[in-house]
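Possible regression after last week's pipeline update?

I re-ran a chain I had predicted before the update to compare outputs. Posting the input and the new output here so someone can diff against the archived version. Not blocking, just want to make sure nothing changed silently.
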Amino acid sequence: MLQTTKRPDSPVSIIGAGIAGAWQALLFAQAGHAVTLHERGDAAMTDATSHWAGGMLAPYCEAEIAEPIISRLGLRSLDIWRRELPDTPFNGSLVVAHPRERNDFERFARMTEGHQRLDAAGLAALEPSLEGRFRDALFFPTEGHVEPRRVLPKLHERIKAAGGTIKFSSDVSAKDLEKDLAKGLDGIVIDCRGLSARDEQGELRGVKGEMILIETGEVQLSRPVRLIHPRWPLYVIPREDGLFMLGATSIEAEDTGVSVRSALELLGAAYAVHPAFGEARIVEFGSGLRPAFPDNLPRIGIRGGKISVNGLYRHGFLLAPALAELTLAYVQRGQIDNEVMQCA
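New output (post-update):
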């Protein structure tokens, strides 16, 4: 096992500076390890899956379609987000539905917990822009959200402040770093490459998530709003400066771009939440490929001094802190989480 061959303060090389790798680097650097974080892209991270993410921190809402492990790890991650980035918005999240989706709305309420049921007046008090739009809503007060393109640079700065090194445009492979281990040099390699790790993890597949960024000053929201949809969750996430992200589809395809059908559904969802979105300006279309295993569950693989963290699917920002904590606990204390870890 790792702890019998590596010092508890062994240097750590991490591949991939997206949300999974960034949290690994931060927690290991804070624990006293000499951390080097390698990223093949530049500091803008525009090619990373994280660039196109929604940034939802919603473990209770995810319980409607996800396995219990997602809720367990997600709830733990909320505590870590609060501890490490105390300015993270935890304004809760809302779930709404139109009358034709009433049965699905009630099903969602039955399959989730941690929510309060609001009547129309309660909803209007919470989000004045939604006054008169829905007869009731589910409010999940402890959930939060982050803006990926703003929070990822913050995490990178925190890593450097904790003594870690980040090397952008560093296209190293896990095998390159493992060669050093084979020479008897002390160290740990953590592979957080996402879909690029299919050279070693052939089970991975890409699940496309499309998004649209729009701008308007006619609507103000303080928290994400999910609109019940017969095929997938559709949500409107407020950003700064009058921006809103509309997402997100889950399509079993590995092409990039946004289809006309998806664009119509995402824009239609926004209009269904508030007609003023019909006059909004479209700022950006985009999509990212989420790395997923066949069971859509995360996995920490361990083989000697090599650790892989992958399969975060559509829960990257929700799960990454808790997975980093589990990896650190294994390296330092040999602690195993049997639901997540696989040891070769």
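Follow-up from reviewer: compared with the archived run. The first strand starts at residue 12 and ends at 15. Marking as no regression found.
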